[in-house]
Specification:
Blueprint (H helix, E strand, L loop, with lengths): L7 H10 L1 H29 L19 H17 L5 E3 L6 E6 L2 E11 L5 E12 L14 E7 L6
Antiparallel strand pairs: 1-3, 2-3, 3-4, 4-5
Length: 160
C-alpha cells in the first residue's frame, strides 16, 4: 500500500488549496509563450511578402480622378439602377463627389443621387460604393461589367 502522501485524495486537496497559485502559474506560462513564440511568428509573417500584392495601381489618401475611376463610377451607377425598384427614378451626377484608390484596382466612390418615387417625392441621397477591377493590370476589359466586382454599397437602404 502507498503511503498517505501519495494517495489521490491528497492531490485533489493540494489542487483545491493552491488553485489560485496554479491559475497564476498557468496564466503566466500562457502569456510567456504568446510573447516569446506566437508574437515573433506573427511579426515575421506580417513582414514577409505573403500579403504583398504587386500592382501598377497604388493606393491614395487623396481623392483622385482617372479614366479608370470614371468607368468604376459608371459601373456603380449601373449596378444601382439594376438593384432599385423600377418605380423610382434616379438622377445621377456627371462626376462623383470623391473617389479614393485603395490600391490593387479597388476604389471607394462617394456620390449623391436624386431619387423621385411614383408619388413625386424627391430625395437627395449620398451613397458609397466599393468596387474592384478583377483583371488587375490588364486594362482591355475595363468596360465590361463582368470584370468588376461590387464589394459594398451603402446609403441606399431606404430605396429597397
Amino acid at each position: 500500500m502507498l503511503p498517505n502522501e501519495f494517495q489521490p485524495y491528497n492531490t485533489l486537496f493540494f489542487m483545491k488549496k493552491y488553485k489560485f497559485i496554479l491559475f497564476v502559474l498557468a496564466l503566466s506560462a500562457l502569456l510567456y509563450s504568446q510573447i516569446k513564440v506566437v508574437l515573433p511568428f506573427m511579426v515575421k509573417v506580417a513582414a514577409s511578402d505573403l500579403f504583398l500584392v504587386q500592382s501598377n495601381d497604388q493606393a491614395s489618401q487623396k481623392s483622385i480622378s482617372t479614366s479608370l475611376t470614371d468607368v468604376a463610377f459608371k459601373h456603380c451607377n449601373d449596378y444601382i439602377k439594376s438593384e432599385v425598384d423600377s418605380k423610382i427614378t434616379i438622377t445621377f451626377p456627371e462626376k462623383p463627389l470623391n473617389v479614393w484608390s485603395l490600391g490593387n484596382y479597388q476604389y471607394l466612390i462617394s456620390a449623391d443621387i436624386t431619387t423621385t418615387d411614383d408619388k413625386s417625392v424627391t430625395n437627395n441621397i449620398k451613397y458609397a460604393c466599393r468596387i474592384t477591377y478583377d483583371d488587375g493590370d490588364d486594362q482591355e476589359g475595363v468596360l465590361d461589367f463582368n470584370n468588376w466586382s461590387i464589394n459594398g454599397l451603402t446609403g441606399l437602404e431606404s430605396l429597397k
